Amino acid sequence: MFLPTPPSNTGAIFTSDLTGDGTFAGDTRGVQGDILPGTNIGSFGRDVSAGNLNTLIANYNNSIAGTTLTPAGQALVSAGFFTKTQLLALGATPPKIALAPPGEVGLDQFFTFDVRLGWVIHPNKMFHRMPEGVTLEPQIQFFNLFNRQNFDSPSQPLSGILSGSPGSLNGTTAHDQAGCPADTTKCTGRTNLTSLGSGVFALGAPRQMEWGIKVSF
Question: Last residue of a domain, which of 29, 64, 90?
Answer without folding.
Answer: 90
